[in-house]
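Just curious. Protein, please.
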Amino acid sequence: MRFRAAVPSDAEAIEAFLVGHSDTSMFLRGNLARFGPCGGADRNATRMWLCETDGAVDGVFGITTAGFVLVQLPDVFPSVEFAEILADDEINAILGGTDQVHAARQALGLAGAPVQLDEDEPLYSLDLQDLVLPKVPVSLRPATEADKDLLLHWRASYLVETIHFTPEDAIEMAEADVDAMLERGTLMLLEDSSGASVAMTSFNAILSDMVQVGNVYTPDAVRGQGHARRAVALHLDRARAEGVKRAILFASGPAASRAYEAIGFKLVGRFTLLFFADPQSVGAAA
């Protein structure tokens, strides 16, 4: 293989490559846009490596400060060199297109490592000109610090339900997650006609051309009433007004899939979220 560590001047070439694989590259693209390709102190900052053929990038992977391995290696099978590069890192998760995540897990010797979450989820895409907007009297507004108690409760519940965190770990993680989303201004609340908050949504990757939807949550008491899809639709309508052309998301189950299909999303593939039960070292479970 021909992997080399990325340097700041590689950012443009990496982005050009990732644009061609955007459906499964939004974490990489978003982190590249925010932090560059060389990592940093933020937990989402990502150290990246690339491989090239005749001077053109044909594969990229990275590891975030939080230990999340992100892969976009469509024509390059991860092997010994891939594992050697990550040998000194603590690995908490692998995210990416399903086939690539499975290959990366094998290459890292972690096929037998205990997992917290291992989900091959349906991946959906939407051209925002085809967005279907709700026809019921609801409104969407940015979340604020005044909403924080509610946001922390909902985010912790989301982490327990979707990523299988323990309640204790979820509470700890929710604080950092909510603070980051409030700082970026991406966290939104849906209110019904009485002004009650009934759902939240956010973008976990934001680029000028495309966004990735995440953190969609409706509390138990008001589920099954279409609030999640309305929150997502109204948030995407705002993004469309700012020039965004496409959206991507992965669905956590059949009900979520039906909700997203109702506002225009189309199934385009599979995306895997692999979270290990404990931090892993390369080859530890080989």
The longest strand covers residues 266-280.
